[in-house]
């Protein structure tokens, strides 16, 4: 999965099946990475995750929230201690950006996930791999639901605009 191809596909078209495939890839990779991070994270990585989470909580713009969210997830991949996960991270960055862009249509979608991000960080800090995995699965499920809701709304609006012509 070439990150540039992912970015290009998302820029050209918000194909529902492609975006859902990206969510699916996240569900395959990120819960396992969170569990590994709970085993291998070092204090410096925990501080970076915590800082990113706090920036997410106070973010005033979509760009600042997305930047902090990406850092949070990238640090989890780094903390998992597997160099190949880091390489997959840039493609996952594109998935995160796409899902954030789509879910911005839902009020409070970012706020809704702050607590679950906090649970992920706590599980990693407390060396609880199963809780970290389950919490990440929950986060990605919520995000996927937000993506589906946003895409459904977009389809309804487009249908209404088409019917009005």
From TrEMBL:
Keyword Transcription listed? The answer is: yes
Lineage, top-rank taxon, reads: Bacteria
Q: Which UniProt keywords apply?
A: DNA-binding, Transcription, Transcription regulation
Annotated InterPro entries: GntR_C, TF_FadR/GntR_C
Q: Which Pfam families match?
A: FCD
Tell me the Gene3D superfamilies matching this sequence.
Answer: GntR ligand-binding domain-like (1.20.120.530)
Record-annotated GntR C-terminal domain positions: 21-142
PANTHER family from the UniProt entry = GNTR FAMILY REGULATORY PROTEIN (PTHR43537:SF44), TRANSCRIPTIONAL REGULATOR, GNTR FAMILY (PTHR43537)
Name recorded for this polypeptide: FCD domain-containing protein
Species of origin: Devosia algicola
């Amino acid at each position: 999965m070439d990150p540039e191809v992912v970015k290009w596909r998302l820029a050209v078209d918000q194909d529902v099946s492609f975006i859902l495939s990206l969510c699916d890839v996240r569900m395959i990779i990120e819960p396992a990475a969170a569990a590994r991070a709970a085993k291998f994270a070092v204090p410096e990585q925990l501080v970076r995750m915590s800082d990113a989470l706090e920036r997410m909580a106070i973010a005033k713009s979509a760009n600042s929230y997305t930047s902090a969210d990406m850092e949070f997830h990238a640090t989890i991949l780094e903390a998992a201690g597997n160099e190949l996960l880091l390489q997959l991270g840039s493609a996952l960055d594109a998935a995160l950006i796409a899902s954030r862009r789509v879910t911005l249509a839902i009020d409070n979608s970012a706020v809704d996930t702050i607590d679950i991000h906090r649970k992920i960080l706590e599980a990693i800090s407390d060396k609880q791999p199963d809780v970290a995995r389950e919490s990440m699965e929950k986060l990605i499920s919520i995000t996927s639901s937000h993506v589906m809701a946003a895409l459904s709304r977009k389809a309804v609006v487009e249908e209404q605009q088409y019917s009005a012509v």
